[in-house]
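As promised in the previous annual report, we have extended the structural survey to additional targets. Below is the entry for Peptide-N(4)-(N-acetyl-beta-glucosaminyl)asparagine amidase.
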Amino acid sequence: MSKACSWSLDNPVFPTNSSKSIDDVYDHSISKSEFFLHSCKTCSNVTRFPRYNDPLKLLETRKGRCGEWANCFTLYCRAFGYESRLILDFTDHVWTECFSPYLGRWMHLDPCEGIHDNPLLYEKGQLEKSLDYVIAVSRDGVYDVTKRYTRKWHEVLSRRVITTEPALASILSDITRECRKNFVSEMLLKLDERDKIRRCVDEHVTKIYDAFFPIINQFVEQTYDKYRAREVLENFKRILISLRNSPFKTRRTTINAVSTDLSSSKMLPAFGQLLDALSLKCEIGVDGTTDICLASDPVKTSLALPVVFHALDDLIHNLNDCEKLNKEAPSWPLLKLNRICCGLVLASGEELPFGIATSAFDGTRMSKWEEPNGATGCWIIYKVSDNRMYELVSYELMSANDAPERDPMDWIIEGSEDGGSSWRILDKQTSQKFDKRFQRKTFAVKSQSFLANAFSLKHSFISSGSLLGETIYSLRGAFP
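The corresponding structure token record, generated without further manual editing, is:
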């Protein structure tokens, strides 16, 4: 990376040699090996370029490479109250991660590239880097986060030759323990739980499922048959597709004359709760047309749109299976009311960066929970937030997008009334088979009248000669 000449301004300068640190920069944590001299090809003057490590000094100099950018940006993140950490890529790059309470996970932020939440940028983007070690450095420890930034772990593993994997884990654990030695017990407990447990950010999924009730109820009251009801839902889906294709920050679309059922005064109010779940609203134009546009944060709409598209597909499919749409029809699985959400999830294992445990509950088939060692059995535990007690009456599983031989066959659902210390079997399934990909299967829990604040799915799989690799499947949530 070239630097601008202090005398010739925009002219590029090039490193000529390194120099020892000078006294006037000692106070800013400069390394002797990181103090460079740059010469300008236009004016032949020499520019000193010290590699300051003190972010406060960087606010003054406003010069640097990726390390300075990340250092200064992380300072800003912490100043604004975000839990932040530096990410060191051993192939010569540095960036930042911030923990997002809204997303319930660490989020990739690269101030040098101006890109956020795109962890595969370095492996799949223009950089096409051959990663080996990516280490997160924070106030409470150091962590190996390499798996989050690659989908070629086996290739990356072949390049990790500095030390053995157990030795690396031990070293990082020792450093983390040293960083935390003066922490109070409450903070240690909080960090220990955060290291192992993920929080589901899926309240919008529950709101979307609940919002279909007034729509189905309106179909029944207006004596729509299932074919006309399906047409209304398909029209609404087309409207949302048009909205999705509009600019992110100014999403807007018009309900045109084709959607006569929606534009009528009878049907549109029934979609009000669903629009609210999508952070959308209706506006009447001066010419009498009805527009659908953003009601609040566009990020909320972006998170919810994939969920509602898949929920609409599922609802249309279930409508086709209804013999008759009447007052008795609006029940499970056509409607999925009172879905549990916002819980804590702990799993036997997961595949970073995208096959994490919370993907089992995010309401979209674009993601899935992946257990690399699932061929020998696996489990996932869902703890209800705030220790509230629920009676589980049904649950649903969906097959993943590939490899039917990896689908779950035998499992048990358990409930716990003491947060997971003791368990009671609520349901048991054997020899289950998914006939196609993205197939949802629903199961009623017969052992009712048991209040629990934690639920678990334990999957035992006896591998046959045809089974290769891991068992991968998607769990799409539990419903009280």
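Residues 203-321 form one domain. The first helix runs from residue 55 to 61. These points will be discussed at the next consortium meeting with the crystallography subgroup.
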